[in-house]
Amino acid sequence: MIRAALLAVCLACAGATMAQAQGQTGHVPPDPPQSQMHAMPYRDMADMMGMDDRRRFAKVMLDRLEWQRGEVSAFAWNAAAWYGGDVHKLWLEAEGDRTAERTEESRTELAWDRILTPWWSTRLGLRHDAGPGPARDWVGAGIAGLAPGFFEVEASLYLGDGGRGALRLTTVRDLLFTQRLVLQPELELEAYGQSDPGRLTGAGVSNVKLGLRLRYEIRREFAPFVGMRWVGHFGETEQLRRAAGETGDEWQWLAGIRAWF
Q1: How many CB atoms lie within 10 A of CB 142?
Q2: Going along 7-164, which residue ranges are E strands?
Q3: With 0-12 CB in 10 A as exposed, 13-18 as middle and 19+ as buried, what is 53?
Q4: What is the pLDDT of residue 7?
Q5: Which distant-in-sequence residues (6+ apart) come within 8 Å of 206 by Cβ?
Q6: pLDDT in tens, 63-103
Q7: 3-state SS, one letter per residue, for 29-49
Q8: What is the domain partition of the chain in residue ranges?
Q9: Fewer Cβ neighbours under 10 Å: the N or C end of the chain?
Q10: Is-contact 208 187, C-beta < 8 A?
Q11: Among 165, 163, 168, 161, which residue's Cα sits nearest to residue 142?
Q12: CA–CA separation, 256 and 66 (whole Å)
């Protein structure tokens, strides 16, 4: 009985306090909606609300446009572009390097990209390799996304003519010294299921590239950088390259720009 009486007194006091506060602030709750939103086409509703989750976007990312100085000087590029919505995108990527005499390496991929989770997507498409030796075409499938620790990861498997198979793995991470000064370590690995003497690649792990680039973002969309990279070839690939008069591994100094729009 005593507890019930105390509870009733507390509730009465709380109600009086709230009523007094409302009277002091002059707050009056709004009236409930008097009408329901009428049916309308999706485009009209998106315009009225100022948001559209079906809209298509495009982006061009020039990740690296750089000069490389190793055994010889070379001009290298790594760029990607995509067009699509939140779930499905058309993805185009190109990477390669060229000396004064010839294109040493060239890889171009066209893929369909589909979001799997907020952090990962899957890709399915075609790849074309050019440069010294015969050109090679592949069908590829892989995943790309952000791994724990903020590592950006791309891993792809490829199947080519004659039963050829290949694996490509890349990972990078941005380490911020300041909001503009960024250090980016990078790892790239390629492996092949069969030897291909025409392109100086052997079965197994073919090459590993370890890079370190320091960029200064004048704007988020534009940043010059400097860095260095080690390129190593292994196993049968190293033997084929040395037999052709190429280096087995080398250090390279790098300088270039990174831009996107």
Answers
A1: 21
A2: 57-69, 73-84, 88-98, 103-115, 120-130, 136-147, 151-160
A3: exposed
A4: 47
A5: 190, 191, 192, 233, 234, 235, 237
A6: 999 999 988 899 999 999 999 988 999 999 999 999 888 88
A7: CCCCCCCCCCCCCHHHHHHHH
A8: 57-260
A9: N
A10: yes
A11: 168
A12: 4
- Mean model confidence pLDDT for the chain: 87
pLDDT digits (tens, 9 = 90+) for 138-194: 999 999 999 999 999 999 999 998 889 999 999 999 999 999 999 999 999 999 999
Model confidence pTM above 0.70 = yes
Query: What's domain 57-260's architecture?
Result: Beta Barrel (2.40)
Under 8 Å CB-to-CB from 144, ≥6 apart: which residues? Answer: 113, 120, 121, 122, 123, 152, 153, 154, 155
Query: Helix, strand, coil proportions of the chain in percent (round to 5)?
Result: 20, 55, 25
Q: Specify the amino acid at residue 2.
A: I
In angstroms, the Cα distances linking 163 to 53, 83, 159, 166 are: 42, 32, 7, 10
Give the SS3 label for residue 243.
helix
For 220, the 3-state DSSP assignment is coil
